[in-house]
Amino acid sequence: MPGKYINPYTDFGFKRIFGQEANKDILIAFLNSLLPEYHQIADLEFRNNEQTPPRREIYTFILDLYCVTPSGERFIVEMQQKYHHHFMDRSVSYTAAAIRGMVERGEKSYALPAVYYIGILDFVHHGEGWMGEVIQEVSLKNQKGVVMYDKLRMYFIQLPLFTKTESELEKPLDKWLYFLKNLQGFQRIPEVLGEPVFEKAFEVAALSAMSESEQYAHEKAWDDMVTTKAIWEYGLEEARTTGLAEGKAEGKAEGLAEGKAEGKAEGLAEGEAQGVLKTARNMLALGIPLETIAQATGLAEADIKQELIN
């Protein structure tokens, strides 16, 4: 991993920069660069990011960041590393859970504060209307395009489409997207980002400021991200070349990624080495070539043959 700074695309890196109480001014500055002028925020509180439904049979999910302002507005901030077929369904489910949590049984008033969902995407959505737009702003509008309900907004930021150079940065949001997209490759703080809030963000993101255990956690998160994306991309390409429809191709890719996750989970219980072997075994069973398995797991092809084939 080159560079002096952490990778903000990983769960560890993203939460270290934007999800710490001591550094919430960084998140506030980022949110204010995106929010409309009439809804700038001065403070927020981090809430439990595990959303537990009222009924046991409904799926519990964990958000990256879940925040509340003193006046009650909710903010869900997610870093999305890969596309999947039900991406929008999941985003709406997260937003609906935040709304549901504000309405208690027996309340007579349905007056709700605003709810914002911010999805930062490390991929380009290929759906109709998405292509070519770095930022998609979604709200409830009527057939004439008039906003009918202004308390629910969703923002989707397609980072791969952001291509501005340092000399082209104009708005605060441009600077934040430039920061996020290029952070891991920076060797110095760019002059255009020489503002106090960015200087603090760079300080938080510096590898040299992290303890040995934190650096290990970051490296592990980075390895997991790269491995999962490699498996996903291989599964998607392999499925498409065999003629599967888009939804089925994505389903197979997700299955491959879940196989990797299963191996990781068992590795926590049985030891790191066993977890890696489990991942390799799952990939081998799915017909993935040895070369790809070796690249994804870090195992040598000879070791894979010896442990799993012979």
**Gyration radius, to the nearest Å?**
21 Å
Question: How do the strands of the widest beta sheet line up side by side?
Answer: 1-4-5-6-8-7
> Tell me about the biggest sheet?
6 strands, mixed
Oligomer: single chain
Element pattern in H and E = HHEEEEEHEEEHHHHHHH
Parts with pLDDT < 50 across at least 5 consecutive residues: 51-60, 244-248, 261-271
Calculate the terminal CA-CA distance, rounded to whole Å: 34 Å
How many structural domains in the coordinates? 2
How would the global form be characterised? Answer: globular
Number of strand elements: 8
Mean pLDDT across every amino acid position: 79
Tell me the number of helical segments per DSSP (H or I, 4 or more residues long).
10
Q: What level of helicity do the residues show?
A: 40-55%
Strand content: 5-15%
Tell me the structural class: alpha/beta
